[in-house]
Predict the structure.
Amino acid sequence: MDIIITGFLLGGTYALIAMGLNLQYGMARIMNLANGEMLVAGGFAAFWFWTAAQVSPLLTVFVVAPVAFAANWLIYLVFLRPLVKRARSRGQLEVDSILTTFGLSFVSVGLMLAVFGGDYFSYSYLSFPVHILGDSYGANRVAAFASAVVICGALWLWLDRSRPGLTIRAIAVSPDSARLVGIDVRKMAALAFALGGAVTATGGALISTFLTLDASTGVMFTLKALIIVIMGGVGDVRGTIVAALALGILETFVATVIDPGLTLAAAYLLFVVILLVRPQGLFGRRSA
Amino acid sequence: MRLTPTDWRNLALSGMALAFAACLPWLFGSYALSIGVTIAMYTVLATSWALFSGPTHYISLATAAFFGVGTYVTGIGIEHLPYWTLLPIAGVIGAVLAALVGLATLRLSGVYFVIFTLGLAEFIRQVITWAQNVSGTKGIYVLTSITEAHIYWQLLGLAALVYLLGWAIGRSRLGFALRIIGDDEQVARHSGIHTARAKILLFLVPGSVAAITGAILAPRYVYIEPSLAFAPMLSFQVVIMALLGGTGRLWGPLVGVIPFTFLWEGVSITVPNQTTLLLGLSFLVIVYLLPKGFVGLFGTIRRRMGSEGLV
């Protein structure tokens, strides 16, 4: 029971991070391997605000999100749009965007190393226990989970009910047909990419309240988010949430029962099983 | 198979270049030799990487995983078996691992393959670290009488083998099939090429070569531990060197390996913390300025000079 709740709490935050990646890969069609660095940057911001001015990470989010949105918008315009323009096929765009975002990822790790150094950093925020069903859990985990639920819910409502949300889902399903009905695909793709970055950075600020980060941990989170997105089905919000919770529980289980050093190995095994059994994702339909 | 006079000339030139490279340990000092080992190692890795990724456009980040497995074959095997058996064993294990990875991912789109190979080295590293914790052992000492020059010659031999293999594949039915797959996979499938099988077969080459390279280099490290053997940076360096040189020609990666090794050495000595930044900038340079590598650049220059009547 203890494991399931801890895993659930962790999975909620993972869902937020993976949601960001899903907006970028599923909707904007850019495989962004620098996603984890955006997360770490969000975490750094929360850390910095907390240690410098005791600003609660839950408030920092309101600064982190717009800044990350703007930064990702710029990244899309400067680095990725030229690639979208010159790509002759989806495959070529994929290779180009993988290489570019790897480049961006290493550049940002390098910059963060230069600015913050290679140390681990953590701070204690809301580190008192909360009792749920007879066991106690860190209040920071519960707070992060609650915020993640609120943000995921808002995002889902927006995608499902609002007109811009509908447009974004349209470009995810079929960019070519979306153009025919008068959607500005380029603008919407940039919007989805920027929004995804903002969501991930927010997730980073939340996750930094209970996990220790350092400048080069980003790639771990990128890998986990990718596994979640593929497991849930690319572009599928519901699948992403289920997959994130499943991964959170699995990781917590492996960390408590076997060895904390094996969490990524466990996630990876899960990925192998998914690739072999359901490469189209949990709720996905097999495509041609 | 029939060889044209050009083939004979190229073979002779390559043989001469190899013979000259083999003299390096006697001609220059130990610093040059250690650079030579590094260059030979990356040449082997990048060339075999390009053999697979050039025609298929699949970006493999599994080099570090295969390499690490190879070093562990030597590390564990040296106590029990004669050294000369270890290299073939490493090659076979690398090929088996590559076949498993290929079977799991090469039927799917390229993105899955990238993610899978990105995680592979870290996966094996975590499993080995865990196994060491459980069994209570730490790293492994590899104490042999193998010198730097021996390692260098072995790597040169392996490089010659990789070049011959690449050349042979290029002339074979498999090579022909791969060129079609690289152009248009759908066309390849319609003309009766078993695309997944061709890709898996080809992926055995970098897998097995990287494992052998790891096995050859293990004595140089003396002390092996998972974080050293499976350092993920290696995979990225190989990708950059191969793409920087260009994957369109067999000798392309070599053109990338040599300048990048010197650049890397220079940066590691002067600003050791900024190697990550260098790696990132190199990726961006490749995508935006040199999409076909130096090889492509030479081609463009030659064509331009040709059109102006200079050549």
Notes: Chain A has a mean pLDDT of 84. DSSP finds eleven helices and two strands in chain A. The beta strands of chain A are 129-132, 135-138. The domain at 2-277 of chain A is CATH 1.10.3470 (ABC transporter involved in vitamin B12 uptake, BtuC).
